[in-house]
Automatic annotation (TrEMBL):
Species annotation: Litorihabitans aurantiacus
All residue ranges annotated as the Pyridoxamine 5'-phosphate oxidase N-terminal domain in the record: 12-122
InterPro entries: F420H2_bilvrd_red/Heme_oxyg, PPOX_F420-dep_Rv2061_put, Pyridox_Oxase_N, Split_barrel_FMN-bd
GO CC entries: cytosol
UniProtKB keywords: Oxidoreductase
Name of this protein: Pyridoxamine 5'-phosphate oxidase N-terminal domain-containing protein
One GO MF term attached to the UniProt entry: oxidoreductase activity, acting on the CH-CH group of donors
Pfam families: PNPOx_N
Signal peptide residue numbers: none
PANTHER family: HEME OXYGENASE HI_0854-RELATED, PYRIDOXAMINE 5'-PHOSPHATE OXIDASE FAMILY PROTEIN
Highest taxon in the source lineage: Bacteria
Amino acid sequence: MEPIADDAEWQRLARARFVSVGTVRRSGEVVRTPVWIAPLGDRLVLTSEVATGKIKRLRHTDRVVLRVCDRFGKIDPGDPELEGTGALVADEATSAAATRALRAKYGPQFTVVLAFERLVRRLQRRRSDRVIVTIDRR
């Protein structure tokens, strides 16, 4: 499907409960993952653990493809695909603003999921390192 950069569709992505974020392997294959996403100004933001595949793929290419999906990643074949540019956030101010945006959109569910993740990581004796990703339109 041809990517589009329509304002209405970008806003639809920003309002969606789940968005399929496709990151690109070195082979060119797109790997899709359903994520929570929130608007932050003209950008979209998401958070993920540092060690996930999507973060590893974003380190070598910033291209992302986005589509509205359900919690399991199921995409309606008629829904448009948008292309964006993903970037890992390094500064604390943007990270804090992105976390606030995600918390505002997803409410207590966001807080509970992150608390549960921290508990599981503590039981596994592993650190829970999260990173914020910003996505701009291409």
